[in-house]
TrEMBL record:
ABC transporter domain location: 50-266
SMART domains named in the record: AAA
Descriptive protein name: ABC transporter domain-containing protein
InterPro entries: AAA+_ATPase, ABC_transporter-like_ATP-bd, ABC_transporter-like_CS, Type_1_exporter
PANTHER family reported for this sequence: ATP-BINDING CASSETTE SUB-FAMILY B MEMBER 10, MITOCHONDRIAL (PTHR43394:SF1), ATP-DEPENDENT PERMEASE MDL1, MITOCHONDRIAL (PTHR43394)
MF terms (GO), sorted A to Z: ABC-type oligopeptide transporter activity; ATP binding; ATP hydrolysis activity
Listed Pfam families: ABC_tran (PF00005)
Amino acid sequence: LLAYFFYSVVLSENIGRLGSVVGIAQQAHVSLKRMGISEHDLNTFEEKGIPCADLNNIESFRIDDPALTEVIHLNKGQAIIIFGEIGSGKSELIYRLMGYTNSAETKLFWNNVELSIAQRRFLTGKSICLVTNEPAAVTCSLLENITFGIDLSLEEVLKLLHIVDLDKDIANFPDGLHTIIGPRTFRLSGGQLQRVALARALARKPDILILDNSLSGLDEKTMKIVWSRLRAEFKGVIIMCANFKSACVPPDYYVDIKTPKQALLN
């Protein structure tokens, strides 16, 4: 009798696992179908670098209450600051540009070629990098947090640290570039962590760099230094979101989102 119950338990476990295998197989089938669609779309998507990008018919997730109704045109080498009150649509604009929404009404053109919904997902990473106002640090060395798998020379890393004005701070770190940082080790200040995240994004050499309040932890003097060096060294498009006009050197454009339904390009 004991052996019967033992084998019953073993058999029931295997039957349960068989159900899990069937579920995983179904998920894999759906994933393969999606990958097939994406692969077809990628055949027509050439990532040549960005002379320009356009967003048309920008709308919010709420169909009855569009957040933005203007057209944004971005040219290579330009810097744009988007500012407005909380909830005015700054993050919505970023999500549209990065392809995080599947709205068929919003049209995204890359190098004058309209991208499908599937193609937009492949912009994020190399083409577009987002730096948030609360970035995270992986528990490893400062150098590894910046390179993150990218093969960079020491000279290139030091140049990135100079752009984000962290080169002087490193002199006070216990082991310099090899200092282990993270929540339970050597803790960076909010401003230092934001600049590490900015250096990490610059290491990927994106075409579009998006700063979502990611200089908010800096004092006015440091912000001006970082902004001026960023404008001098970064050759792509810079988009910075802020709740008010910052102390940064005036950009090429201000996008003033005064109300949830109005975006004025100045």
